[in-house]
Design goal:
Chain A has 344 residues and is an alpha/beta fold. Helix content of chain A is 42%, strand content 19%. Chain A starts with 7 loop residues before the first helix and ends in an 11-residue tail after the last strand. The interface between A and B is large, with 48 and 49 residues. Chain A binds a DNA duplex (16 and 16 nucleotides) through helix 2 and helix 4. Chains A, B: One of its GO terms (molecular function) is DNA binding.
DNA sequence: ATGAAAGCGCTAACAA
DNA sequence: TTGTTAGCGCTTTCAT
C-alpha cells in the first residue's frame, strides 16, 4: 500500500530539483547556498502539494524528536497538576516541542517502565515531577536522558531542580502580619506537617515554618503558638482552630499552613462569631482558587504552579544542565483578610 | 558517530541468526514458526545485551506509534483536568500507549497547528476535550485521524463522544429530596446558566435542569422556584441564596447547580443561622473534593472526570469508531446534608 | 551549486 | 523454516 502522504521526494520532483535540495530548503537549514529562485520553487511546490514533514522519519535520522516527557508521581493528589501542565505546555509550545504526560502512581516499577517507554521513543528530555515537594531517588534509567526535577530535589544535588521558594513565602506571610502590627498574638495552624516518613516535617512545611519564624525573629518577636496538625483536609484546620480558640489567649492573627486548613479555620472562626478581619486576621498559603472563594476572601501566598511547569521545561530545553536549585517566588495575593492590630 | 544503542542487528548477530528471525521473535508476532531453541537464543541475547526496540524506527515502518493525543481547549479553566488526564493515562497505559497532552486556549489557529503537529508525529488517534460540555466544530485537519470527542459533541453527530449524563444526574438530585419528603419547598440556585453565546443556557445546565424538572413532575409536583445566576464563583451562589432567603417563603431544600454555588449558599445559610440539614436540606453537583470540604459536607452528584478520560481513550483504542454519544453516569455521594421534610 | 547514494533501525515480502 | 532484500521518509556526506 503506497502512502497517501506527500513526501519530500514528491516535492522535489514537482519542483524539478534533487531530494537533497528539497531537504535543505524544507528543513530550513542554513549554511548552504541555494538560489533564491530554486528555493521559492521548492517552497511553492511544498505549499501546493500540502507537504508536511514526517517527524518520525526526521527523528529516526536526527535522533531528535522535539518531544519531552513530564512524568508525575501522582497527578490526582492535588488540584494543581493542571496548572503545572499548562505552564509546561506553554513553554514547550514556544519552542516547538510536544509534551508526553505520564504518571507513576509513586510506584518505582511503573516509573522504570514509563521512563523506558519514553527513552524508546527517543524523547529529548524527561521532567520528573512530584505533587508535594520532596527528595527523590533518580533511577539509573532516568540518568540516560537529560533530566530536570520539578517540585522535588535529588539527594545528591546532581540535577537541575525547580521548587517553590517556600522559605521566602513564609517570611512574606509573617511580614504581612507584622507590618499590620501583629507582634504578640500570631498563631500558626498546621505546623511542620510531620508524617510517618518525615518526623522532622514535610519539606514545604519546614521551609514555610522556618521562614515565618525567621521573620518574627528579625522583628524582635516570636510566634504565640503553633498548632501542629494534619494538612490534608479542612476538618483538621477546623479542629485545630477550635482548640486554639478554647485556650486562654485569644489569637489576634492566624497563619494557616495551607488553603484547606484555612477553609476549616474560617468555619471554626465563624462558629465562634469571630469576624475576619475585624476580630482576627488570617493569612494562608496555597491555591488562588480556593482562598478567593472563602468569605471573606483570604489573603494568601500562593504556589506558582504555572511558573514551576514553565521553568522546568525552559530549563530542560535550554540545555543548561547545570545542577542547581531554582527557587520560584510564590505570589502574594492581598484579599483583605488582614487588618491592623488593635494595640498597634 | 555510531549509535551507542543496541540494535536488533546486534541481537541477531549475537544469537547467530538472521535479522528477520530476530525481528519476528522480538516483536512477538505470531504466525511464523521459529524453533523454540532459536527463540530462546534470541531472547537470551536481547536480555544479555540489554536490547530495547527503537520505537521511532518501528513507527516509521509500521505507521503506528502507540501514542495518542489529548487536546484540551483550556486546561486551567477548572480544577478537573488532572482527573480526566489521570483516567486517560490509566486506559492508555493498559494498552501500552503513551499520551501527548496539548492545549489550544480555545484558539482555532493553535488547534490547527497542534493537530498538525500531532499528525506529523503519526499519532494513532486524537481526543478533543472541552472543559465545559458544549458543541464543537471539528476541523478538516482533525478528521484525518481517528477522533473521539471528550466532554463535547459535534454538531452533526459524526463522532464518538463521551459526556457526563447530566440529565440523569439532575433526576437523581431531585429524587434524593423527593424521597426525603421535600415536595413543596424545593428551590434551585443556578438555573440554566445562560450566557451571551447560549441564551438557552449552557449544555450541562439545561440537562441538569430538565432532569430535575422531569423528576419533580414524575412525582406529581414542581419546583418552588429557580434563581438564575452566574455559576462561576461562590459569590453568585451567596447572593442568590440571600435573595432567596429574603423572599416570603423560606425554602425547605435547595439544589445548587454546582459546587461553587454550594459554597456560596452555605455561607449565606450560615449567616442566616439556618442549619444544614436541620433547617434546610442541600444537594449540589460537582467535584467530590469541594463538596466534602464544606461544613457539614454536602451531598452531591459528581462529575465522573476520571471515567470520562478513561472511556474516551478506551473508545479511541478499541477502533469502535461508531458515531455515538456515550453518557457516563455521574456518581452520587451522600454526605448527610439532606434530612426528612418536617411535614413528611 | 547540485545530485547520487548511504544509511537511521526496523518490518515484511519474497526467495531459497 | 531461514535468510536476503527492499524499503518507511528523511538527512548528510561526498563526488560532480
Amino acid at each position: 500500500m503506497p502512502s497517501l502522504r506527500v513526501t519530500q521526494a514528491d516535492v522535489a520532483r514537482h519542483a524539478g530539483v534533487s531530494r537533497s535540495a528539497a531537504s535543505f530548503v524544507l528543513s530550513g537549514r542554513e549554511g548552504v547556498r541555494i538560489p533564491v529562485e530554486t528555493r521559492q520553487r521548492i517552497m511553492g511546490a511544498a505549499q501546493e502539494l500540502g507537504y508536511r514533514p514526517n517527524r518520525t522519519a526526521q527523528s529516526l535520522r536526527t535522533r531528535k524528536t522535539q518531544t519531552i516527557a513530564l512524568i508525575f508521581d501522582d497527578i490526582g493528589a492535588t488540584h494543581y497538576a493542571g496548572e503545572m501542565i499548562q505552564g509546561a505546555l506553554e513553554a514547550a509550545l514556544e519552542r516547538d516541542h510536544l509534551l508526553y504526560i505520564a504518571e507513576t502512581g509513586s510506584d518505582p516499577v511503573t516509573e522504570e517502565k514509563l521512563v523506558q517507554e519514553m527513552t524508546d521513543r527517543q524523547v529529548d528530555g524527561v521532567i520528573l515531577a512530584a505533587m508535594s515537594t520532596r527528595t527523590v531517588r533518580v533511577s539509573e534509567q532516568m540518568r540516560r536522558n537529560p533530566t530536570v526535577l520539578l517540585n522535588c530535589l535529588d539527594e545528591f544535588g546532581e540535577f537541575a531542580c525547580v521548587v517553590p521558594d517556600e522559605e521566602t513565602a513564609g517570611r512574606h506571610a509573617a511580614r504581612l502580619l507584622l507590618d499590620a502590627g501583629h507582634r504578640e498574638g500570631v498563631h500558626v495552624v498546621g505546623g511542620h506537617h510531620t508524617t510517618g516518613g518525615t518526623p522532622e516535617g514535610v519539606f514545604a512545611a519546614q521551609k514555610r515554618m522556618s521562614g515565618i519564624e525567621a521573620a518574627m525573629e528579625a522583628a524582635g518577636t516570636r510566634l504565640a503558638g503553633i498548632i501542629e496538625c494534619d494538612w490534608s483536609a479542612p476538618e483538621h484546620g477546623y479542629r485545630a482552630t477550635r482548640s486554639l480558640l478554647e485556650s486562654a489567649f485569644v489569637p489576634t492573627a492566624v497563619i494557616c499552613c495551607n488553603d484547606r486548613l484555612a477553609i476549616g479555620a474560617c468555619q471554626a472562626l465563624r462558629e465562634s462569631e469571630l469576624r475576619i478581619p475585624e476580630d482576627i486576621s488570617l493569612v494562608s498559603f496555597g491555591d488562588p482558587g480556593l482562598a478567593s472563594w472563602l468569605r471573606p476572601p483570604v489573603t494568601s501566598v500562593d504556589l506558582p504552579h504555572h511558573e514551576l511547569g514553565r521553568t522546568a521545561v525552559s530549563l530542560l530545553l535550554s540545555d543548561d544542565a547545570t545542577p542547581a536549585i531554582h527557587r520560584i517566588p510564590m505570589t502574594l495575593s492581598r484579599r483583605g483578610s488582614i487588618t491592623a492590630a488593635r494595640d498597634a
